[in-house]
């Protein structure tokens, strides 16, 4: 079997990918090329037959597994029964968890809102294993509503979740009780108890980090800190992996051996305890990989069987993939196994370094290089300080933070008095480090934005990396050429947007708000009109959530980064309503903004003033604009038609910036929240004004897009930016009627998600993210 299991892992990877990916033809063709090469290298036709056999078997298994991932519920169901399957997440007045249906491998995501503070205690006592009967409104999970966005519907589907139960308002609709459970349920309850213990005993600054390091639970990390970990390339330190499993295994091994237990019995005990630890630690792909590899080593040690590391990791890969084929598309699974495979295969390179510090540096560098294509593909950015941060922070976590967290967890159970000093010491260390990471992240963090690459680019990068490592191991001078090719391919992806000749106008779905992105060809200019913003209504303290919805941080910035946008030439804030400028806090923080345009009117309120000051502090130049101002880039012209010099609108909406844009002889009118009075002024002052594409004012409100305005502009298309199922019932039927009577094609973000107009060759193409 020596080395063969690696070939089986390769074949299984192709088989599962071909079964579950929409690109079956390309994957199968690639598989036969790889199988042929491996067979030629091994000079064995039997190798080819074995690889094909394994690939076909895993293809069938994954296909059958996917076919069985169905639902027994329907949209007509209003009450469901089941067991709580995970640690419930309580944030303000919201609690969410998964409910496992009886006698079927299906789960339902439950989202409940607590309506009374007195009922909060009952929800806090909800544990995994509780049996619940819940009434609410069942619906299919939301799919991605923006281009290049995370597909939450597919994420839940891969976990056997086909429905979400929402609009559950409290105890009246939900009845739960304790029930006798299985050993698996008991483990989940122990995990929940451990996390709750950390919340009760650990200092606030340590709670999130301790829950992540001990139980693999990141939801307690502050949003800014967690985002800094991810963007700076050190998020893997919060994942329980080989380091944690090694410490636990080594400690238990020494403890049992020193207690007089034979090494053989210790191996058997660890084979029982390590799977338990994997479940307590959250059963993420990284911890499952580490535990499985350790178990294989223990089995071989117990029965005196030789096992090569490459065989151990290959078997772990196969076991996990057979357990859950969807793991192949999990970013944590991909990163964990890719880095581990690379480190094991490069053992000869590390042996060339005589000092431990040099070996550690080589390991860190190789991990960064091999993970680079996957990180860019999934997250579209890469931090240039990731390597030095890992070199410095990994030893701190390994030698100080992780051992101290483990010790304090158990020490605090014995004596809080002795633990208090060490809590204070560790809290200050962690506070300093997290403060530094957050500061670094907020000040750029040397984060390079690459955009979303193609699958071909990812494959090409891995081929180049493998060739470079082979040449480096053999000390060939041509390794310099391979390294240069790696750098050139990375630079190609970085500059690719600047050779893109398409013009795109995207109406981003930010819910009940506006956000419009204009990309001129070859990155001549990038303009962002508004950035959305969720309007929060007054709440009591107990109802406030730690993580407020922020379309700028959660939607607009990720979309810009997926396009490789690093610099926004102009950010146009049409007026001072939060649903237009709220998301721009994140944009000005994470993007290089040239000029921020705001209407030349009296700034209405301290909130808008605070935003403008924040934008200026982030380096944006403020420009207050009015009718008559204009700019152009080549043949593309942009003219401001509103507000007037005196900003005499009766409402804040009527002082919105209105832009008349001409791009490829197509007239666009972006109207913000302009209402009827402002529209009448445009009709009166600009008798020859026309628009091919109209951005309907005020989200399709009855106060905008009047019949006279539509008849005057004679548009062929109109876009209404409104939130799905919004509380204002936008767009109003009268607006739809006005547009339909004028034979205008209507595009709506509430129904179709993001709308993207692309000028290609000699005409416009319209792309909708969601089919109606």
Automatic annotation (TrEMBL):
NCBIfam families: ComEC_N-term (TIGR00360), ComEC_Rec2 (TIGR00361). PANTHER family: DNA INTERNALIZATION/COMPETENCE PROTEIN COMEC/REC2 (PTHR30619), RECOMBINATION PROTEIN 2 (PTHR30619:SF1). It comes from Natribacillus halophilus. GO terms for cellular component: plasma membrane. SMART domains: Lactamase_B. This is Competence protein ComEC. The chain crosses the membrane at residues 6-38, 45-64, 234-257, 269-299, 327-348, 360-379, 391-414, 421-442, 454-472, 479-495. The lineage of its organism: Bacteria, Bacillati, Bacillota, Bacilli, Bacillales. InterPro entries: ComA-like_MBL (IPR035681), ComEC_N (IPR004477), Competence_ComEC/Rec2 (IPR004797), Competence_DNA_uptake (IPR052159), DUF4131 (IPR025405), Metallo-B-lactamas (IPR001279), RibonucZ/Hydroxyglut_hydro (IPR036866).
